[in-house]
């Protein structure tokens, strides 16, 4: 199982607000029932099968273009651990346990 952070930014839209683009990207993400995700202030974390995640990111990347953007910058960070099962929650709990 992979944990992926993605940030999709339309460029040259003439507006500094991006929340409507983010919301439309999340509409695409919601269609994928096998993926778990979490919206953060700076991006979205997605957990699940890497092939499915990359497929949905590709579709999310197209959203700003469909909304009139002429350029889109997408950043992807992948944590693909194969030696044991992990999750978003486990990663956070691991750090929190070391803070005590």
From TrEMBL:
<dbReference type="InterPro" id="IPR029756">
    <property type="entry name" value="MTH1187/YkoF-like"/>
</dbReference>
<dbReference type="InterPro" id="IPR051614">
    <property type="entry name" value="UPF0045_domain"/>
</dbReference>
<comment type="similarity">
    <text>Belongs to the UPF0045 family.</text>
</comment>
<feature type="domain" description="Thiamine-binding protein">
    <location>
        <begin position="4"/>
        <end position="96"/>
    </location>
</feature>
<feature type="compositionally biased region" description="Basic and acidic residues">
    <location>
        <begin position="77"/>
        <end position="92"/>
    </location>
</feature>
<dbReference type="GO" id="GO:0005829">
    <property type="term" value="C:cytosol"/>
</dbReference>
<dbReference type="Pfam" id="PF01910">
    <property type="entry name" value="Thiamine_BP"/>
</dbReference>
<dbReference type="InterPro" id="IPR002767">
    <property type="entry name" value="Thiamine_BP"/>
</dbReference>
<feature type="region of interest" description="Disordered">
    <location>
        <begin position="76"/>
        <end position="100"/>
    </location>
</feature>
<protein>
    <submittedName>
        <fullName>Uncharacterized protein, MTH1187 family</fullName>
    </submittedName>
</protein>
